[in-house]
# Entry
Amino acid sequence: MKKVFAIVTIAALVMGSIFASGAKEASTMSSVDENKVTLNSNTPKGDLEIFSWWAGDEGPALDALIVDFKGDYPEVNLINATVTGGSGVNAKAVLKTRMLNNDPPESFQVHAGQELIGTWVDADRMLDLTPLFEDQGWLNIFPSDVIELIGTDDGIWSVPVCVHKSNVMWYIPSNLKKWGVKVPKTLDEFFAVAEVLQAKGIVPLSMGTTWTAVENWENVALATLGVADYNKLWNGELAWTDPKVVEVWENFGKLLDYTNKDAASLSWQQATDMVVGGQAAFNFMGDWAAGYMMTTLKLAPGTGFGWANTPGTTGAFQFLSDSFGIPKGCSNQDAAVAWLKACGSKSGQDAFNPLKGSIPVRTDADMSLYSAYSKSAADNFANDDIVGSLAHGVVANEGFMNDFNAVLERFNESRDAKSAAQASKEIAVSNNMAN
Amino acid sequence: MSKKNSREKLYSVLILLPSIILVSIFVYGFIGTTIYSSMTDWKGMSANPVKNFIGWDNYKTLFTSFIQIGFRQDLVNTVFYTLILLFGTLILGLFLAILLDRQVRYEAVYRTIFLYPMALSFIVSGTVWRWLLAPSGGLNVIPTWFGGEKGTFQWISSKVQILQFNWQNIFQIISALLLVIFIFVLISSIKSGNKKEKIKYSIICGFFALFTFVVLPLLPPPLAEKEMHGFNLATIGIIFAGVWQYSGYAMALYLAGLRGLSGSIRESARLDGANEFMYYWKIAIPNLRPITMSAVVIMAHISLKMFDLIYAMAGTDNEFTGHPSVRMYTTTFRANKFALGSAMAVILFLFAALFIIPYIIRSHKERG
# Structure
């Protein structure tokens, strides 16, 4: 029996040393302490893995960008790693496990703003891209509101590729004429119109699953608070329990009364379909809905479908953006920098955005390549006040966004504005967004 | 100890050693790590995370904080998911097995058809069932084929909750349920006339009665405010899909059991004048007890792994169909709260243990 124990002990020791050496290796690999991206004149080559959730409908746009990139940097072997799932639901989880394993891709897609900052910058896992922005002159070419939303005091963390607008209201002009209603400009006008429509048996506002409800909430919040207070809410100057915020919840509750009952089981496309099919009058949705209606449903912008800012948000542009950043520990920084240059370049943005249905971040893009809707959105982007979107991670970190879903679902059931405001305050505190 | 004997022992230990080491690291080691993580304040994606030991705080958050109401509802959902899936699959599976046991023609074809859903992954069947249960199509349309009104039930998005109870009374409810169970045990022990057992169970019943009606009402409630939970009708569709998928499996288990019963039992039952119903009710089903036992364990742990089905059918943010495993995923990998997610994992682990440990103890007793 003694022998047996000896063997067991030896085996345990051997196994232990194997695991211990593995751990050592991992710790030396993660010790990269450069904080800023380094620029040099090397010709980029070697493997470049870019990680995104642009598969399916968005695949062709990414492919166009990759073609543009390969034209400039033929020596780079680009590996296009995509994980499907709208808004990156699956990709983000895969990325997190890879980052925790110290196996980062050279560059990855991320929603610009707090979603990136709260998760990756706070964890000290991103390279500051300020030198690149200065080198490329992007500080002057990208709108300053945008730079402010995607950066912190310590740096700029990602290169935005495309811009979407989330405060758009969609409708079918001929249907509105048939029902004898006008496009509402303020929330009060909207509620009045909704009353008329509901009396006719038409759903005033179509809505889909939880994240679309969050989008509608942010639209109502912007309308109720106005640009200044909306921004204050996110930088902690306006309390979540302030009477104005309670009013946001009250208005949102009213809005919910005018939505379809099966919202929770509809995708955003199905909610758009309700408007196109004439069961519903309006839909608040980000402007990827324009791409869906033009490309998939073959409707002409302006005549086949119409759009306006969501009620009460005239003069404001609720912004969200997909962007690429470079994680620390990136094994081929030259190639990653080259990729970001392509993402921010005029030719790259003009190759990508017309196909995705989004607008370029650059103020000097060639707008003749874009659709009628995109032209009007680009015009708003240039002239309106730019504020960030909650549903798509510009203004709040992921912890808050996750908990907010639960608060919203609870409110949907209880319709208690005060307790929803109180709960929002609690989650803001627990996610380090308020004191 | 003879030389040959000790050498055999050595071999057996050597053969077992790799799996013992691997299991102890990858199963028990990781369970231990999860339990430790659940008692820290680990959150965020930092390369060198700060993990301060904070004891039971995460568990306290889960069971008392206002934000985690959803988690408590998820636990209630789990109880219903588990119980209904268990009874649904077992009863339906037994029924199908009895039908097939009666020497039907093309039995193999039916067997394959009934067993087939199990070969699909939850994601596939979940996607199909989501379409079938869409409020404006699928099952709701069926009544119109017979000239009826189109169904209006909001399968997965229903917000109706029945069998509501106040979470403040949760301990009384659990204790009362245990009381009811032990009263049944007591009655059966009285019937069997075992004196020792009778005394033992009377004491247990007395204890729970005292607890339910005297001790617990005197204690302060676990929550400051009233909080209602109950059975969400939105979960029916998901349970439906689960039962559809796994009743074939229960059927296969039972069919094997029925085939295992010797034909002479059936013959002699018949000679004694038992009809078919009596044969199954009085002879076959009691003889299938060991199969029921293992089926219960298998189904119970499947019900704890419904993540894929719920993910495919309702998504991660439907508060009405939630399950702790889904919330664990979003808390950990979306909100980056690793410690809180670990605490949920530990609770789920205890839930699984609730079913599996009694089974292991029992099978040990039977063997010993």
